[in-house]
Write a structure and sequence with these properties.
With 423 residues, the chain is an alpha+beta fold. Helices cover 29% and strands 28% of the residues. The chain has 4 domains: 2-93, Rossmann fold (3-Layer(aba) Sandwich); 125-180, Dna Ligase, domain 1 (2-Layer Sandwich), CATH 3.30.1490; 191-318, D-amino Acid Aminotransferase, Chain A, domain 1 (2-Layer Sandwich); 328-422, Alpha-Beta Complex (Glycinamide Ribonucleotide Synthetase, Chain A, domain 4), CATH 3.90.600. The protein has 13 helices and 22 strands. Strands 10, 11, 14, 15, 16, 17, 18, 21 and 22 form a 9-stranded antiparallel sheet that branches. A 5-stranded parallel sheet has the order 3-2-1-4-5, sandwiched between helices. It has a 4-stranded antiparallel sheet with strand order 6-9-7-8, with helices on both faces. Strand 7 and strand 8 (153-156) form a beta hairpin. The longest helix is centred in the middle third of the chain and has 21 residues, at 239-259. It comes from Hespellia stercorisuis DSM 15480. Residues 211-220 have a biased composition (Basic and acidic residues).
Length: 423
Amino acid sequence: MKVLIVGSGGREHAIAAGVAKNSKVEKMYCAPGNAGIAEYAECVPIGAMEFEKLVAFAKEQSVDLVIVGMDDPLVGGLVDELEAVGIRAFGPRKNAAILEGSKAFSKDLMKKYNIPTAGYENFEDPQEALEYLETAKFPIVLKADGLALGKGVLICNTLEEAKAGVQSIMLDKKFGSAGNTMVVEEFMTGREVSVLSFVDGKTIRTMTSAQDHKRAKDGDQGLNTGGMGTFSPSPFYTREVEEFCNKYVYQTTVDAMSAEGREFKGIIFFGLMLTSEGPKVLEYNARFGDPEAQVVLPRMKTDLIDVIEACIDGTLDQIELEFEDNAAVCVVLASDGYPEAYEKGLPITGFEEFKKHDGYYCFHAGTKFDGDQIVTNGGRVLGVTAKGADLKEARKNAYAATEWIQFDNKYMRHDIGKAIDEA
């Protein structure tokens, strides 16, 4: 079996590590990949949005399965283009990937099908948004409608901040065309939990829970990022929460998409807020989370390829998803200055230590080869992940492993999973 993974981050590295466990896979490619993925796959210099080149490459190499890791190519319709030439692809088609591609669409879907979420209004006219904010309750949340690398969300504590946010999103176009429409949403308080799920159009199988840390600095301070670390499972995702979401959120979302003529096959990522009024949906994503995949996939006992093929074939009801009875923590090592300006091309050392210890992983996000040397090539550079018997042990192990890796300007948060201590 020949597999092509599309993407270049830590999530795609975690997917590649999972795919490599299947004995049927004789050849793996990744476009464009990174220095870590190169251990498992032949990295191909084709960008994730170069659809014609990706389709041509998959045909030339007789690829049996394409796994699309990233949001942009899913929302852009890469799966449709692959299927049009008879290539099996994992991920939602364009008309279903809108679940992540448009926050306004997903909010309207939740409202229509009574899926619990925060109160909101959608705006295409900045002046109307400003007038609405004059009467709004603060704090309030502003969201660019489209894809913005996980950064298009502003929490505004005052009217002045909100007005500046409208200027930034809708007028200055800080997030480009993603800000043509803006969602204004009530601010919810509570614990955040991420639940990834496999979907085959009708059946849903949820994975173990996780929790991300979005802010750049300790204590949830600083700018929003793509994610600075995660832990799994979340001690706040109780049996009661799971039962509520099974009844009112998970299957309801899958059925709602089918009812709208947008059959969803692939991954639905549920971003949940555990409020005093019960769980509510913060957001949907249409792919594995990054860095959530880095703590969920290493704990998955069921073969990843088997589950992916069941999603494509509509036979997910025959699969029982199993996870190890343990925990995992991922600490992102970033380049100092991320998510704004940072240096690239800095040599990295220490990878050999991970080969000596079971249950430790170093997932590459922003890396590349400079000759034989691996160097930094992005804001989020590596995801250092470790397992443990429980969350506290996994956290201790992960932070110990961050010391193995050295590069100039290495930056990380020191409180990933600190919430565990309060559970």
